[in-house]
Amino acid sequence: MKKYYVVFILLLVIGIGSGIYYFTEYRQSKMNFPDEVTLESHLGGAYSFKNMEPKVRLVEFMYTQCPDVCPNTTFQMKHLRNELENEGVFGNDVEFLTITFDPERDTEEVLHEYANTFEMDKLPGWYLLRGNDEDVKKLADNFNFQYRDPGTGQFVHTSATYLLNKDNHVIEVFGMGEKSFNKEKVFNAIIKEID
Known about the structure:
Blueprint: H1 2-29, E1 38-41, E2 46-48, E3 56-62, H2 69-86, E4 94-100, H3 108-117, E5 126-130, H4 133-142, E6 147-148, E7 156-157, E8 161-164, E9 170-174, H5 177-180, H6 183-194
Parallel strand pairs: 3-4, 4-5
Antiparallel strand pairs: 1-2, 1-5, 3-8, 6-7, 8-9
């Protein structure tokens, strides 16, 4: 009888270990930019995910009508960008990608306003992007980022930002919003990755 308990415990530990590996390492290793997707910048230019220059990237999915976590995260990213600028790495070694998943309402004009509000154009290296529904969905799916409009225009969505290394592999996933996006932790992770 004791053998069965030992075997059961052993199988349970292996199962839990496999699950932890899947959710923390394996899924992250499969997150990537689809080469065939090209989005449009709020400045009107194309942004292609094919043959990207090697840089550390922080990726945020959002929509401009979000009442809470999206603008708060963008606000914190603005301050993070300023700190990275002071270190002399923003634009050269690090760039931010903020991607709307509501391209119908987030027109080029709306994105211009959003960019002005958060001073995204202060320095080169922060891209505010939009695309057609299919391309944005493909990109979001590659990052396991889920979003859905329940019919109110107020999307329900994953609260995650993604830090990618220079090879465009996700190395860390951070939360969004005032309590979950730890600017200091993100800053330290970026600096560590650059060094």
